[in-house]
Amino acid sequence: MSSRPLSNKPRQTLALFSYDWDPIEFEKIRRQWPHVHAGFDLFSFPSSARLAWFDMDRFCSLAALKARVHGARGVVSNHDQFGALCAALLAERMQWPGTSVEAVLACQHKLYAREVLQRVAPEANVPFSRLDMNYGDQIPEGLCYPTFVKPVKAAFSVLAKRVHSRQELAEHTRFGPWELWVIRHLVEPFEKILRRRLPAAGSAHSLMLEAPQRGRQYCLDGYFFDGNYRRLGVVEAIMYPGSDAFMRFDYPSHLPEAVQRQAERVAIRFMRAIGFTHGLFNMEFMHDARSGELKVIEFNPRLAAQFTDLYERVDGLNLHAMAMALSHGIDPETIARAEPSANCASSFVYRSFDRKVTPPRPTSSGLRTLQKTFPDSLLFQFPKLPGQIQRDFKWLGSYRYGILHLGGADPGDLQRRCEYASALLGWPAPYVDDIGGLRDLSDASQPWPTDAAAENATG
């Protein structure tokens, strides 16, 4: 990537709560955009133990001190749970460019976001309500099923689920003492800022209900600079059959341009209503091709970090570099593009839906062959202990054990590459065959054809 700030001296940036995709992408641009890190990983022990005493005001005070010591002049975060709000608070305190605190709160408080959307774009909203009960209480009578339940404040689709009966809702909202402790400590730092800065939203210590939506799911990525909106692209989300769990993310999407423009109009109206004038964002939405209806799922006031690699492969855009530019008040359009390496790309998500079956770990030889055959691949593995896996099933409905990124010349080429790579890993490919099952092609004994071999085969 040939991006660089508009000055001879690189600008130091404070990156908050960076993990998974962030360290990889930030490392690519470290020379042009040097940075220091602050924060902790919620999903790794002992780092996650800091949740017990975490306070956003105290964290921002320490982060400000670290920024001064290292000479940082901007802050960036793609972390939904704590990072985006901490970055907004710190930018405000240090008088740096950033997203307004109230705009971040408005996006992340899912119930309040629905209320704003109802005022500015009711045609893109769905029926919604707060679930009027405390954790562990009896489920109210008279609810309509099926319904979609989710936390008012959460991240990573935690505890978001379609339920079909009062009994199923009761089971889904029945938490043990440890689960309740975790939930409260995840929400309370947000709640403390919310009470002070956006009290009209009401408490985030709650669940909410939404009418189930129909259609395919998409993600509109964009940003605001100097109050002006600019589109990056639209990613298409493919679900595992019969579930609300992501199977893969495809870029570019096949959504018609007219519908993409419709989604943009909704996003612009909402963002301007909450005072979002600076920063990256994404809007998740559903589109029903039969009815033509477009319905918003939620707004996220930060970069979808998982998609940066997809945009870089197809468009030559490094979204992390663009986030760095925004944190210093630099127009991301000035960031140079790299040469695209693919016409399409996907983030393949490997999941288990069987609590009794532990997915196989890739062999060393399989991993070596994967790297040799597909040097452009990007692989994440998420091994977990049995207790952690069971919590994933409770909170997410499945166990996500791996993610693989690949690019291709066209969708057919990309699928063939994924199927061969999945066989090397010993995992079912995230595609569905004609009878609705996953494509489990375990035979990787035949080598992937080289460009020369493929040319000879077709010539």
Please specify the SSE layout and strand pairing.
Blueprint: E1 13-16, H1 21-28, E2 35-38, H2 56-70, E3 75-76, H3 83-94, H4 101-108, H5 110-120, E4 128-131, E5 147-151, E6 161-163, H6 166-172, H7 177-197, E7 207-210, E8 216-225, E9 228-239, E10 246-251, H8 257-273, E11 279-287, E12 294-300, H9 308-315, H10 319-327, E13 344-352, H11 364-373, E14 378-381, H12 386-396, E15 399-408, H13 411-425, E16 429-432, E17 438-439, H14 451-458
Gist of the model:
With 459 residues, the protein is α+β, with helices and mostly antiparallel strands. Helices cover 35% and strands 22% of the residues. A hairpin with a 5-residue loop joins strand 16 (429-432) and strand 17 (438-439).
Q: How is this structure best described in words?
A:
By secondary structure, the protein is α+β, with helices and mostly antiparallel strands. Among the domains are: 127-210; 344-458, no CATH class. Helix content is 35%, strand content 22%. It has 14 helices and 17 strands. The chain has helices at residues 21-28, 56-70, 83-94, 101-108, 110-120, 166-172, 177-197, 257-273, 308-315, 319-327, 364-373, 386-396, 411-425, 451-458, and strands at 13-16, 35-38, 75-76, 128-131, 147-151, 161-163, 207-210, 216-225, 228-239, 246-251, 279-287, 294-300, 344-352, 378-381, 399-408, 429-432, 438-439. The protein has an 8-stranded antiparallel sheet with strand order 12-11-8-9-10-13-15-14, sandwiched between helices. A 4-stranded antiparallel sheet has the order 4-7-5-6, with helices on both faces. α2 packs across α3. The protein starts with 12 loop residues before the first strand and ends with a helix. 39% of the residues are buried. Mean pLDDT is 90; it is low at 1-7 and 451-459.
